[in-house]
Design goal:
single chain, alpha/beta
Length: 237
Amino acid sequence: MIPARYQASRFPAKLMQDLGGKPVIVRTYEAAVNTQLFDEVYVVTDSEVISEVISAIGGKVIMSKQKHESGSDRIAEAVEDMEVDIVINVQGDEPFIDAVSLDKIIDVFKADAQKEIDLASLMTPISEWEEIANPNTVKVIVDNQNFALYFSRSPIPYPRDKEVEATYYKHKGIYAFRKRALMDFKRLPMLTLEAKEKIEAIRFLEYGKKIKMVETHVTGIEIDTPEDLDRARQVWK
């Protein structure tokens, strides 16, 4: 499932920006299909414009019936009546997704015989302080089994003792959910921490869900700003 909102707050209409001759959302859809990992790939949107460009290439679209605050809410509505076990959320602004990283989070559920893990997601190491301090970069800290402890736009852990070595991880906005966890997300109201940070993954933590983080070294480019789009265009060339 690729949630696709037209009016992004930081970069309106970013999903319709040109990337190598096609809109960003089309590039992301094609990348997801080309991994050959999924039974079905859908774009879930409230935008007729996005719906039309995906339909024009023979893609599958689900139109949202309600207004949603997050991509997870949008996907939850779309899959509510579907017979599915695992749902993957690929952000519409990630045209450089790769099959290896996606396969890793799918494998989390194959190994989870007791079905204790509610969702899995990706993180990648970062080392430049400018990126670590950037509030547009969501950071995550994990326990010794790589279960998420917290997500933040602030640098976590805070480097009070600069002699202690720590790896900083950027959260990549790709999730794999058990359907039941996604339905819980839709039902449960937003709490304070999610509202403050504007990070939807925090809702799962606030309600005690277990998020398994998987490390990947494939960074890609998430298109959050016009500058990201410029970098993406250079990489595409």
